[in-house]
Amino acid sequence: MGESALAKQPAYAGSVLAVVAAACVTGVLASQPLQVSIAGIEAVGALLLLGSGLVRRRGHHVVGGVSVVAGSGLICLSLGLSLVVPGRLFERIVLLGGVLAMAFVTLSVLPLKQSWARGFNGIGVGLFSCSLVFLAWISTPSSLQILLGVGLTIVTWDMARYAITLGEDVGRSARTYSVTGMHFSGSLGVGLTAGSVAAAGSRITLPAVPIAALALFLSAVLILLFVVFLGDTAWLSGREE
């Protein structure tokens, strides 16, 4: 990867906030303390991966390499643990969806390839959405879970998108803390407002709806969201780096 390509990678501040928000969503999807710990392990791994680039840019290549290996190992460990953690099968499926989603969000802000960044972000948020829907289907999540799950999923998507766009505009090494902080405040406000609406709506009693019809409707909505998320990527537009 050339020097100009490195300069156009996602901004660090927004990337970190996106990963932290994704870790919080994964924690919301967890149904027991051990599962929350798995989300924490993955968060540490993701932050190590992000930090490795910053460390290498300052000339500490050995430390950066160790961070890459350690971060990748922790993310793989969390994926493995999510498959074998004690609990009901459906709970493990929800957790696995969250862990995979966080991995994709992390890949979107590294990124492996710049033209894939928005696509990975869309996949990650799509997986979070599916996991939240599945969680609501198999259990009765609290209003706080719904508020945080929906709100922080929106924040995750928006902050990753913002980090990618800002990195393309001003470069990864630019100091973006203040503008990113302002954007994060607005994104958090919008996300929590949407989460509050979702939490309030979840308490409304609706007439009985056949499960198959409901599943088809939710699937159609999620597919539509997925296409919207990917609509600005090179995968659908045909753009190349």
TrEMBL record:
<feature type="transmembrane region" description="Helical">
    <location>
        <begin position="62"/>
        <end position="81"/>
    </location>
</feature>
<feature type="transmembrane region" description="Helical">
    <location>
        <begin position="12"/>
        <end position="30"/>
    </location>
</feature>
<feature type="transmembrane region" description="Helical">
    <location>
        <begin position="36"/>
        <end position="55"/>
    </location>
</feature>
<dbReference type="Pfam" id="PF24363">
    <property type="entry name" value="DUF7519"/>
</dbReference>
<keyword id="KW-0812">Transmembrane</keyword>
<dbReference type="InterPro" id="IPR055941">
    <property type="entry name" value="DUF7519"/>
</dbReference>
<feature type="transmembrane region" description="Helical">
    <location>
        <begin position="93"/>
        <end position="112"/>
    </location>
</feature>
<feature type="transmembrane region" description="Helical">
    <location>
        <begin position="176"/>
        <end position="199"/>
    </location>
</feature>
<feature type="transmembrane region" description="Helical">
    <location>
        <begin position="119"/>
        <end position="138"/>
    </location>
</feature>
<keyword id="KW-1133">Transmembrane helix</keyword>
<protein>
    <submittedName>
        <fullName>Uncharacterized protein</fullName>
    </submittedName>
</protein>
<keyword id="KW-0472">Membrane</keyword>
<feature type="transmembrane region" description="Helical">
    <location>
        <begin position="144"/>
        <end position="164"/>
    </location>
</feature>
<feature type="transmembrane region" description="Helical">
    <location>
        <begin position="211"/>
        <end position="231"/>
    </location>
</feature>
